[in-house]
């Protein structure tokens, strides 16, 4: 079969599997992208920051290849700032792994408290001052990082590696930077990563601060287009769905992450009926805890039964597989040559063993791929015609040494994470107050 496409992923979460209990996105992000992290926050990792990035990225790539994921779309954030050598480390890891990777730079340029409703007023002046002092890169610095990514890595490794752009979310960037990213996306035909309406609080933010839904805001700026991959789209209304459909964008569905953070359930059938192409992602290892897209297909095949009493409107196995393969190819602007077993398409293939429990006995191949397979039947993973996983081993990678190095780096990582958790716990009461205030706002 064609390889799976993990259409939404943040590799910087790769060391955080199992780190956190479930919590709302707004609290979770205090741990994921600590808003007070300065250079000193890197602690024992500072001297080996790029090696850490390399090992962290490679670890996730290897896990994906073993499960038959041939392409990843990495919306990579950088704490506290993006560096050119950090980008090189990340892309080199993907080059060495042999996976197909499209990589964006997910770096907001708005001060932390202005990304949310009510937070500026809820925070004591001392915490606001800490946030004002946190490193924030200028539009020029961020565009220079993109220039580096595009000139050094876009089309590298025989075309396996590509660049994408990301604004993270519309409320996290200035309109000026947002427009510059859109221009870059148009100029090079790059996918544009944007998280929109992941949580109810973001719906309130649109209503109270922007005076319109965040989908409408992006549309009004003239930036909602077919290169966009809109991530989550959970709290969308019918007008938002019509705008998404008219734009030609793709929507990335990440049901494991959405349940882990209690965000809600994306309206699969409404989006699909409107003609919006859907793709699937694991999001990241601090909210999915694995890179297992098979688990995502299974949940996508089940969770929508809660949203609709009519079982004829629940996603069918064929649709779910289409999202996991062709939807992902579309999201990275590769629907013309990825995700089909057909002349003219790139040879990104997976061979599964049918002599396994998942397929014994064999009743319906597609349903058993969606509901029974967990990646353990994958015997060969082929990317761009090259066998990268065979006989239980990833070609050219000493996986035992990789895991040992990851464990060694983990000690320094934990020391940094512990300090940042202290900040998160101190800030959490203000974020909880914000969530409570937003919860009391009726949605219009
Ligand atoms: Zn995400």
UniProtKB/TrEMBL annotation:
It holds the Pfam family Amidohydro_1. Residues 1-388 form the Amidohydrolase-related domain. This is Amidohydrolase-related domain-containing protein. Signal peptide: none annotated. The keyword Hydrolase applies. Gene3D superfamilies: Metal-dependent hydrolases, Urease, subunit C, domain 1. One of its GO terms (molecular function) is hydrolase activity, acting on carbon-nitrogen (but not peptide) bonds. The keyword Hydrolase applies. Belongs to the metallo-dependent hydrolases superfamily. ATZ/TRZ family. It comes from Rhodoferax koreensis.
């Amino acid at each position: 079969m064609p390889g799976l496409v993990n259409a939404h992923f943040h590799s910087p979460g790769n060391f955080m599997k199992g780190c956190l209990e479930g919590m709302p996105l707004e609290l979770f992000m205090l741990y994921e992208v600590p808003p007070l992290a300065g250079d000193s926050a890197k602690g024992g990792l500072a001297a080996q920051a790029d090696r850490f990035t390399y090992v962290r990225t490679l670890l996730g790539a290897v896990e994906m290849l073993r499960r038959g994921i041939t392409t990843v779309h990495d919306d990579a954030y950088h704490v506290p700032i993006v560096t050119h050598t950090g980008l090189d480390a990340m892309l080199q890891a993907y080059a060495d792994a042999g996976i197909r990777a499209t990589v964006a730079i997910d770096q907001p340029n708005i001060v932390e408290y202005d990304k949310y409703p009510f937070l500026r007023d809820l925070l004591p002046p001392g915490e606001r001052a800490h946030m004002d002092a946190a490193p924030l890169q200028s539009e020029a610095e961020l565009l220079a990082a993109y220039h580096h990514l595009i000139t050094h890595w876009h089309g590298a490794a025989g075309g396996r590696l590509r660049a994408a752009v990301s604004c993270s979310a519309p409320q996290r960037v200035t309109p000026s930077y947002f427009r510059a990213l859109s221009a870059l996306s148009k100029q090079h035909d790059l996918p544009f990563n944007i998280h929109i309406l992941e949580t109810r609080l973001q719906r309130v933010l649109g209503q109270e601060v922007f005076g319109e839904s965040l989908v409408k805001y992006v549309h009004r700026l003239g930036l909602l287009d077919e290169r966009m991959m809109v991530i989550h789209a959970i709290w969308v209304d019918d007008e938002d769905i019509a705008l998404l459909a008219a734009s030609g964008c793709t929507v990335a569905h990440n049901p494991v992450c959405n349940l882990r953070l209690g965000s809600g359930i994306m309206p699969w059938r409404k989006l699909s009926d409107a003609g919006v192409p859907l793709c699937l992602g694991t999001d990241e290892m601090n909210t999915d805890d694995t890179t297992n897209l098979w688990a995502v297909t299974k949940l996508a095949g089940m969770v929508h039964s809660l949203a609709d009493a009519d079982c004829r409107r629940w996603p069918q196995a064929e649709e779910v597989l289409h999202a996991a393969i062709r939807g992902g190819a579309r999201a990275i602007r590769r629907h013309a040559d990825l995700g089909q077993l057909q002349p003219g398409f790139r040879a990104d293939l997976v061979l599964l063993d049918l002599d396994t429990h998942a397929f014994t006995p064999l009743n319906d191949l597609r349903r058993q791929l969606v509901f029974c397979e967990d990646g353990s039947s994958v015997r060969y993973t082929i990317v761009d015609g090259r066998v990268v996983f065979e006989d239980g081993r990833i070609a050219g990678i000493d996986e035992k040494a990789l895991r040992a190095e990851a464990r060694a780096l983990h000690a320094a990582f934990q020391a940094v994470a512990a300090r940042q958790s202290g900040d998160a716990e101190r800030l959490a009461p203000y974020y909880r107050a914000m969530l409570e205030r937003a919860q009391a706002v009726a949605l219009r």
